[in-house]
Amino acid sequence: MIGFIGLGNMGFPMANRLAAAGRELVVYDPRVEVVQQAAAFGAHGASSSRAVADRAEIVLASLPSLQASAAVAAEVTNGAKVAVFVDLSTVGSAAAQRNHATLAAGGIAALDAPVSGGVGGAQQGGLAIMVSGPRAAFDTAKALLEELGRPIFVDEKPGAAQTMKLVNNLMAATTLAATAEVMVMGVKAGLDPQVMIEVLNAGSGGTHASRDKFPKAVLPRTFDYGFATGLMVKDVRLYLDEAQTLGLPRPIADAVAGLWESTLREQGPESDFTSVVKVLEEAAGVTVGAIRRSR
Ligand code: NAD
């Protein structure tokens, strides 16, 4: 039996994939409606994280905050059956190290395994999964993680995968913010946004933002890519903290963080992170949207 805790934008499609691959699942989320939806793909519902850890040998979690991750790790530590706990959440290396210590005290091997690839990657089994923790626990969980994407072992040192994830997400935060800024500039100057995206993607300025996020969620004005602004800001702040702890200058990250903090203030934590462009659009008085002229 496999446990899954946290059935949100990422956790729900991941649990769904595991069930589709034939895994027997026991799941928990405080939102009763998503536990009921998971029953539709055959998952057993549990009433708490502890109850999941009483029934499953390997427990996975995908949680929205450091607090939720710590609370779940503490509950899982008391589980009767669990041997390996895999936290797929992004919490930063310091929090991951604390969770590893909590779980180790209860005799449970902890892997921090943050993921990249978004909701689409979760649905299609195409996630990059960065893993750190005991190698033997990785070997135990590897086949399971391969059903979700590509597990890459980073280091045995707890939290190393979190550092890698923050590096990845600062790049994603930067390219989305930079793409938003140049798109607004081009549109203000009279360029067609559809043509701009086509040229960026054919040339050297293309990024994941221009290839995927803008065509899917900005140009059609749906702003439904599936990652909340509040979570993006969490990751940017965690990156700033870790860089500061290392005593490093961070000129790019500081500039990018300023725009993300404005997005949080103006669009709210629940807004989709593609809403970052709206902050720049409002200041410029333009919209990066539908095709404006025929070609
Ligand atoms: P989400 O807010 O959509 O889902 C989180 C789920 O956890 C919710 O269903 C919530 O009810 C549940 N939850 C909250 N507190 C809980 C608790 N104490 N016990 C059990 N369940 C609890 O978040 P998400 O977008 O799915 O992201 C989850 C994690 O994955 C975050 O750490 C995020 O940074 C990371 N992540 C997200 C994406 C993405 O594209 N959405 C991509 C990569 C990584």
List keywords for this structure.
Rossmann fold, N-(1-d-carboxylethyl)-l-norvaline Dehydrogenase, domain 2, 9 strands, 295 residues, alpha/beta, binds nicotinamide-adenine-dinucleotide, 2 domains
- Categorize the overall geometry: globular
Q: What share of residues is helical?
A: 40-55%
Strand content: 5-15%
Query: Which consecutive residue ranges, at least 5 long each, have pLDDT under 50?
Result: none
Number of strands: 9
Mean pLDDT: 97
Number of DSSP helical runs: 13
Question: What would CATH call the class of the largest domain?
Answer: Alpha Beta
State the major sheet: 6 strands, parallel
**Could you say which small molecules are bound to this protein?**
nicotinamide-adenine-dinucleotide
Q: Structural class, from helix and strand content?
A: alpha/beta
CATH topology of the largest domain: Rossmann fold
Element-level helix/strand string: EHEHEHEHEHEEHEHEHHHHHH
Using only C-alpha atoms, the radius of gyration works out to 20 Å
Strand order in the sheet with the most strands? 3-2-1-4-5-6
Domain 3-hydroxyisobutyrate dehydrogenase-like NAD-binding: 159-280
Keywords: NAD, Oxidoreductase
Organism: Mycolicibacter sinensis (strain JDM601) (Mycobacterium sinense)
GO molecular function: NAD binding; NADP binding; oxidoreductase activity, acting on the CH-OH group of donors, NAD or NADP as acceptor
